[in-house]
Write a structure and sequence with these properties.
Blueprint: H1 18-39, H2 73-79, H3 82-85, E1 97-100, E2 103-106, H4 107-118, E3 120-126, E4 136-140, E5 145-147, E6 155-157, E7 166-174, E8 177-186, E9 194-197, E10 202-204, E11 209-213, E12 226-233
Antiparallel strand pairs: 1-2, 3-12, 4-11, 5-10, 5-12, 6-12, 7-8, 7-11, 8-9
Length: 246
């Protein structure tokens, strides 16, 4: 833009002339006209209620210095990571999710976990005194159950001070078929332990028998041996309906 032609020294106080006043007014009129012509039709945004066209551009004179100042796209891309910019979208449309500790989890998964915790079933086995050779304890199953992988949550009690390591067998009896599903190994001495040697989860149906079998060799030093198996009742959870199209 050219410098203004208006002379601030005119009119001179006490010596004003008509010609000098008219000259300055003429300069002012010409400069205002140029400004009006250059601004005519420009995409200026109204201070109140204006709408910016899709292809309009706003250029900021500097980077923000205060919390409420606007930023350019380049500034945001350079200074903010996606985690800082906001929460990521849920992994799937049409299903309900909850967010905790930065992770999305399906509502159906949360409900299933809650039902599982609320439907736990304890299946106890206990030998009174010393067990007999190959003695069996049979527990009939009244409704479908699942014993989780590695028999997580199941415990064994070994109060004796047996001098020989022993192994108790856990089996599932379904009709005429008996299937070994795990072993409980008992080590020796006062500080001995009883550990589960299992891996895959076990599905039990109503009418099945869960059987604990003692070792073939009786052991008078291993008495009052007991086991509690933790299982979960099988509860079907309905799948979420797909959202209807509007």
């Amino acid at each position: 833009m050219c410098p203004s032609q208006i002379d601030p020294d005119f009119p001179t106080f006490g010596e004003a002339t008509t010609e000098s006043v008219r000259a300055n007014f003429e300069h002012a009129r010409n400069e205002i006209t140029v400004l009006q012509q250059s601004a005519e039709g420009a995409p200026f945004l109204s201070l109140s209620g204006g709408t910016m066209d899709a292809d309009a551009t706003i250029v900021l004179g500097r980077d923000p210095e205060e919390a409420m100042e606007p930023v350019t796209l380049r500034f945001a891309q350079q200074h903010y990571t996606p985690a800082e910019a906001g929460i990521s979208d849920a992994p799937q449309n049409g299903h309900l999710f909850a967010r905790r500790d930065g992770t999305w989890t399906g509502i159906d998964t949360i409900i299933a976990a809650g039902l599982r915790a609320a439907s736990s079933v304890m299946i106890p086995f206990a030998f009174v005194g010393a067990y007999a050779s190959s003695a069996e304890i049979n527990m009939p199953i009244a409704f479908p159950l699942t014993i989780p992988e590695d028999w997580d949550g199941s415990v064994a009690y070994r109060p004796g001070t047996n001098t020989t390591a022993r192994a108790f067998t856990m089996s599932r009896v379904r009709g005429s078929t008996t299937t070994t599903v795990g072993t409980i190994n008992v080590t020796t001495g006062a500080g001995g332990t009883a550990t589960f040697d299992t891996s895959a989860e076990v599905e039990l149906e109503a009418g099945d028998i869960l059987r604990l079998t003692a070792p073939a060799a009786a052991d008078a030093t291993l008495n009052n041996f007991a086991v509690t198996v933790l299982a979960y009742r099988v509860i079907e959870t309905p799948e979420a309906d797909e959202p209807e199209e509007c």
